[in-house]
């Protein structure tokens, strides 16, 4: 699973990426610091089931399991990128592999539409939210419209299924038949009248497909210096909006990595481990403490958690081979944590572990209750499950 970091240049995407991954990326106060997409691994947090046992699994921190996911920081997007401005569709093409998007917005209003520094509060961050959605919609429209006249006639002449033809045209953008079906229902566009669809109809369809296929959360970055009115306006949007200070998170992660503090990402506090600090370090940590107290957290981990568990509606399931010890055959307790779509069943889990195990599935066992479960049994978040199959 991949989360994409999107937004205009200089909004703080690379800082969010570095804070989430501790990868070595360039960060600078000017547009297009990122030219080629940065790929990395970050972690979503889940409560570890080992808290229910006398023995800990050794794979969690204070009862919190960190489940790895892929994250991609793409080049900044400027208005009319879909027409080739800035780095153009390079940005949009990189996002095709993302299942969800964290839109990093400069909530401080300290950068203009193209990412150039201005006075704090001079730019309205709501404009950035609208323009990103528009650019992504028009990117999809550009791909679909390219051959639409020819395709629509072919659908009509040969009796082809509309959803299949559109999904083939937009496959490179990560759009599938289920996304298209849902968008057709939402927009009320009639399949039989596709030959009569106007440009406005097709843009509406693409807008709906974008929302469905690439659900989006807003990281209101630079919240520590943002005018209160900007944060208020962003929070009033009909979206998940998380006040964020990526710079504070990066500083805390770096300090923890160097043994200066003890800090678990997403926590509301941190512990200073040494008195051997310079005046600048003390002052910096005190300033960050005030930011965290005001915002609740730095917001970076909350963005990741809420994207996975709310936007994508995923759950964490722990497959084991020994239902008594909750371990694999080597005795490793809770060796794996799988992210799965809510509503998945035991047979789905078997296939996710290995195709052969799915093909030769017999039944599953709930490791907590020791009850046998059928293939259609719906899994719950935090389930510990043994899969029984005839696979060797």
TrEMBL record:
Keywords: GTP-binding, Nucleotide-binding. Pfam families: MMR_HSR1 (PF01926), TGS (PF02824), YGR210-like_G4 (PF08438). GO terms for cellular component: cytoplasm. Residues 1-264 form the OBG-type G domain. One of its GO terms (molecular function) is ATP hydrolysis activity. PROSITE patterns: G_OBG (PS51710). NCBIfam families: PRK09602.1. Belongs to the RelA/SpoT family. This is GTP-binding and nucleic acid-binding protein YchF. It comes from Methanosarcina lacustris Z-7289. The lineage of its organism: Archaea, Methanobacteriati, Methanobacteriota, Stenosarchaea group, Methanomicrobia.
